[in-house]
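Please review this one.

:::
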Amino acid sequence: MILDSHMRKTLAAIRALDKKTYKIYAGSFKKINMFKFSKYNDNFFIYPNPEKKPEEFIDFICNYLKTNNIDLILPMCDVTVELISKNKDKLTEVTNVPVPDYNIFMKARDKAITMKKAVETNTPAPETHFINNLNEVENLKNEIEYPTVIKPRISSGSRGITYINSKEELIEKYNLVHQEFPFPMLQEFVPQTGRKFQVLLLIDKNKNILASTVQELLRQFPVGGGPGTLWKTIESKELEDLSIKLIKSLDWYGIACVEFITDPRTGEPKLMEINPRFWGTLNLSLKVGVNFPELLIKMEMGEEIKPVINKHFEEYCQWLLPGDFLNFIFNKDRFNQEINYFFNKPKRFHYAIFSKDDPLPVLGALLSYIVDLFNKEKLKNIFNRGK
């Protein structure tokens, strides 16, 4: 069973799993989504919205697993991974659950814990102030350098991240973020003009690295920071080593995405966060032969795995609609890009959604995006990221 089938990374994962080997049940809380248009859509089901109705969601999933005698459950997004991890004891009674125990999961989900562990392991990271009460913000306003960043301990897709330019606006904006994301951190501002990287890992319970890929995000939306819209594979032993040391210190197992940005003032890579779930840029890993979903399944089922370390560099992938198209609209440097948005693509170029073998999900994606245009909450989340 794979959850969150409305997401492009889930579609990529399902396409990468051999239908002769796996019988796939794919679910979503969205009735209109790209996967329903895919030729791989054999066993689609709708479940309660996990964010709005978490208890109903878990009860539904447990019953569905039992009824269909499903061997393994694979959640793909922050909300479902956290709920599955939190209810892992209940779910392991009926299926295999390839996510870390909740206490381990929260070490990566909670960015404050991640940053404290970065300090312990000498992993380069922005200077961070951990807030335990609101009076501390008042005391710090004259000490920290501006601009500074308010960063939630737990959020998704850059939501809640707020940039502060002066001490006069710090208290008001901190309180606003605090209302939705309690006691966010105050963090050194790293100019977003630096290069941005993802180190993608699969690690087992014995701390063996079973898969690894490094990617550079070339474009994002929102332009200043958000999901990748154009990215490529690169070679970087330095970033791999830093990430592996950090992830092992958390006693982590399963998949993880460790994100860095190069500080343009010093040239030093600095840790941004760990995403303890599959990443939106997954399709490029699959295209270069690092099949993270299948390797994770085999690991959980106890099969012997030969480590897969990516050796295919300078391969590109684009999330064209709506991601890179929106970058084109809002990017002031749109005509000064090394890789053109629409023409003259590099030879080793792939797409996040479009596939000649399975073209109809593009139509499904466009339809779901049109539906989202009428969802005020969805639009607010998209355009407020990274403000």
